[in-house]
Amino acid sequence: MKGLHMVTWILLVVGGLNWGLEVLGWGIGNYIPEGLATLVYALVGISAIVEIFTHKSNCKHCEKKMGA
Q: Which of 11, 22, 24, 41 could in theory staple to 47 by disulfide, Cβ–Cβ 3.0 to 4.6 A?
């Protein structure tokens, strides 16, 4: 599960940075083929869903709060 957590975390960072760059008109969707941009957006969305359901079991800070 650690591998999945790392992949989803990286994709969420990419998605967050993309939204920040989008404000400046530099979103990744403007610079890569449309099909690839759609794939990246889908992977970021799936990553968010995975993290919603698995975050507490993967996060050291949340584990401490749950055990306290």
A: 11
